[in-house]
UniProtKB/TrEMBL annotation:
<protein>
    <submittedName>
        <fullName>Methyltransferase domain-containing protein</fullName>
    </submittedName>
</protein>
<keyword id="KW-0808">Transferase</keyword>
<feature type="domain" description="Methyltransferase">
    <location>
        <begin position="60"/>
        <end position="147"/>
    </location>
</feature>
<dbReference type="InterPro" id="IPR029063">
    <property type="entry name" value="SAM-dependent_MTases_sf"/>
</dbReference>
<dbReference type="GO" id="GO:0008168">
    <property type="term" value="F:methyltransferase activity"/>
</dbReference>
<dbReference type="InterPro" id="IPR041698">
    <property type="entry name" value="Methyltransf_25"/>
</dbReference>
<keyword id="KW-0489">Methyltransferase</keyword>
<dbReference type="GO" id="GO:0032259">
    <property type="term" value="P:methylation"/>
</dbReference>
<dbReference type="Pfam" id="PF13649">
    <property type="entry name" value="Methyltransf_25"/>
</dbReference>
Length: 230
């Protein structure tokens, strides 16, 4: 598969007819992938800068999956004595049940099903998404960027993959070694092929009317994050 042009092939986990049991198994393995690849670290690093000296904040996570990013944020805030009002929104109705099942009873996170656009005016300090942007088309991504720019009082972050040849070649070896779900093995490589490169991000930001106000930064390993601090 050539990486010169971004792939638009559909990922299996996005199929509307994927069985709930398979979807839950995929989400569970993806949470493990996020741990192994340190996928949450860029968002937590950004959060520290965006929250600053605030003693409380309200955050929206778009496309939460099994909720592992929101749980990491909840632990981060609790450790620092910060009150975190955490809301997640996900289009897939099976995500909410999976996320609630994986979340401790003493951890308060509002998992919702629906379209992020319906949450406009929600009073969010921060809007975040982790490994979601590559699932979107360029027009969908522009609309999402405009939403975050309008709704996030303190800042927003898109934490996503970098379409990089080494990651594309190496991921199948890692996925096979760790015996991840077959969909996670196949979709992971396709996700890398669907990801945007820095020049593409800059063009999308310009088209969205945001331009250099947001920074496109590389994060280890093979992450591209788009960050906007106010």
């Amino acid at each position: 598969m050539s990486l010169a042009v971004r792939s638009t092939a559909e990922e299996a986990m996005d199929a509307p007819d994927l069985a709930e049991a398979d979807y839950r198994a995929v989400l569970a393995d993806l949470a493990t992938v996020n741990t192994v690849t340190m996928a949450r670290r860029p968002t937590l690093d950004f959060l520290a800068r965006a929250v600053g000296t605030r003693k409380r904040f309200r955050l929206l996570d778009v496309g939460y999956g099994e909720g592992d990013m929101l749980r990491a944020i909840a632990r981060w805030a609790a450790k620092r004595g910060i009150v975190a009002d955490l809301v997640g929104i996900d289009l897939n109705p099976n995500s909410a049940a999976a996320a609630r099942a994986a979340t401790p009873a003493n951890m308060t996170i509002d998992y919702r099903t629906g379209d992020y656009a319906d949450l406009a005016g929600g009073g969010f300090d921060i809007v975040a998404s982790s490994l979601v942007a590559h699932h979107m088309t360029a027009p969908q991504l522009r609309a999402f960027l405009r939403f975050m720019e309008a709704e996030a009082a303190a800042g927003w972050i898109v934490n996503d993959l970098h379409r990089h040849a080494f990651a594309h070649a190496g991921y199948p070896l890692l996925a096979t070694l760790l015996r991840w779900h077959p969909i996670v093995r196949a979709d992971g490589r396709l996700s890398i092929a669907r990801a945007f490169r820095p020049a593409e991000w800059h063009a999308i930001l310009a088209d969205a009317g945001i331009g250099p106000a947001a920074k496109v930064v590389r994060r280890f390993p093979f992450r591209l994050c788009v960050e906007r601090l106010r």
